[in-house]
TrEMBL record:
Residues 41-161 form the DUF11 domain. InterPro entries: Ig-like_fold (IPR013783), OmcB-like_DUF11 (IPR001434), Sdr_B (IPR033764). It comes from Actinoallomurus oryzae. This is DUF11 domain-containing protein. Pfam families: DUF11, SdrD_B. Residues 172-274 form the SD-repeat containing protein B domain. Its main location: secreted. Gene3D superfamilies: Immunoglobulins (2.60.40.10). It is found in: Secreted. Keywords: Secreted, Signal. Residues 1-32 form the signal peptide.
Length: 291
């Protein structure tokens, strides 16, 4: 029997549709799925200064609002709650998100839409610590918009700020004439160093001085946290560090050489904890460079 070839007439343009873009009714008829709608996505971050060193000291907390979505965010509102133990005495913001403080809450209301993928000028609160050392306080922030959002899990943020006490870090700088790493009678004090710093290794914050007097230095307002002492010498000068930690901790040197270049020689102590009202002694022994 001869085979009959059948042809189908196509009307209209040929359209290619991927399977992922199709939905099917119960009768098996395919329909193109609607495209996902672009939405806003506002988020807030909180940052803060390092731990406050005690009652009466100032600090700042900063809130940053951004729109991570693909549509503008309308009627933006940010609220920051200041915890008990801190007194607000100043707020910095832009005209696009002006702020009004009331009791322990700062409310900032947007004056215009926040464009897609845009960030508002940061809002900074200037504060004074009123609580005693040892207090941990949580700052909370929340942001809202009347626009539909793709994600609301990032609309809040919390930052814990510590109020810590202060202690003293002090020490002697001397010429270790016999190079044994021990400070002994007759070995003279030295002032010939570039700088001494006390640094928190967690955040790099700290204090520094540029001069040593009669071979003695003292920092009386060091935060009661982890710290190191960093000493910088002139790389072209006559001195380098003596061997550290070789004997009695009351008389040996506590600084180890960590880096040398043609211009500077840097030495660090081991990490140590400062306690509120406590005193830590970190001594620095120097020896003449070999000729």
């Amino acid at each position: 029997m001869a085979r009959t070839r059948m042809t189908l007439a196509l009307r209209g343009p040929l359209v290619a549709v991927t399977a992922a873009a199709l939905t099917f009714t119960a009768s098996g008829v395919a329909h193109a799925a609607p495209a996902a709608k672009a939405l806003a996505d506002v988020a807030v971050d909180l940052s803060a200064d390092p731990p406050v060193v005690g009652t009466g000291y100032g600090t700042t907390v900063t809130a940053t609002v951004r729109n991570q979505g693909d549509r503008p965010a309308r009627d933006l509102q940010l609220k920051i709650t200041v915890p008990t133990g801190f007194e607000l005495f100043g707020t910095s913001s832009s005209s696009a998100l002006p702020c009004t403080p009331a009791a322990q809450v700062v409310t900032c209301t947007g004056t215009a839409d926040l464009a897609a993928h845009a960030t508002e000028y940061p809002i900074t609160l200037s504060l004074e610590a009123m609580a005693p050392p040892g207090t941990d306080a949580d700052f909370d922030a929340s942001v809202t918009t009347t626009s539909r959002e793709s994600d609301t899990s990032n609309n809040t943020a919390t930052r814990t700020v510590q109020i810590v006490g202060v202690g003293t870090v002090q020490g002697n700088v001397w010429n270790d004439l016999n190079g044994d790493g021990q400070r002994e009678p007759g070995e003279p004090p030295l002032n010939d160093i570039s700088s001494i710093q006390v640094i928190n290794p967690d955040d790099g914050d700290g204090s520094g001085v540029s001069n040593i007097f009669d071979g003695y230095y003292s920092f009386w307002d060091v935060r009661a946290t982890r710290n190191i002492v960093r000493v910088t010498l002139n790389g072209s000068g006559p001195w380098t560090f003596t061997t550290p930690n070789v004997g009695d901790d009351a008389t040996d040197s506590d600084i180890s050489d960590v880096s040398e270049t043609g211009s500077v020689i840097i030495g660090d102590s081991a990490e140590f904890n400062v306690t509120a009202g406590g005193v830590v002694t970190i001594d620095v022994g120097l020896v003449a460079k070999s000729q």
